[in-house]
Amino acid sequence: LLKAAQAALDADDPQWAMELADRLIAAGEDANRSGARRIKIAALRILADRTCNAPTRNYYLLAARELEDTD
């Protein structure tokens, strides 16, 4: 699942990458958790860059920052 999330991110599909990363984070496997967080952070930042809606951009960036702070 981690490889699929990275492949989605590489294929310019951050929404799908974020969905897959969420599933890995929720599963709670320590081996995949840091990689899944890294992918989700990258996906959130890509989505923030692409949106023109300020509150949505703020949400994505804040969510990415919270994930960074919990590592």
Question: What features would you describe in this structure?
Answer:
The protein has 71 residues and is mainly alpha-helical. Helices cover 86% and strands 0% of the residues. Helix 1 runs antiparallel to helix 2, helix 2 (14-27) runs antiparallel to helix 3 and helix 3 (30-50) packs antiparallel against helix 4 (54-70).
Please give a handful of descriptors for the protein shown.
mainly alpha, globular, 4 helices, single chain, 0% strand, 86% helix, 71 residues
Q: Given the structure, what is the number of helices?
A: 4
Task: Give a count of the beta strands, DSSP E runs of length 2 or more.
Answer: 0
**Structure class:** mainly alpha
Overall morphology: globular
Largest sheet features: none
The helix-strand sequence is HHHH
Radius of gyration: 12 Å
Strand content: under 5%
Helix proportion:
over 70%
Low-confidence stretches: none
Question: What is the typical, i.e. mean, pLDDT?
Answer: 93
**First-to-last CA distance:** 20 Å
Question: Can you describe this structure in just a few lines?
Answer:
The protein is mostly helical. Helix content is 86%, strand content 0%.
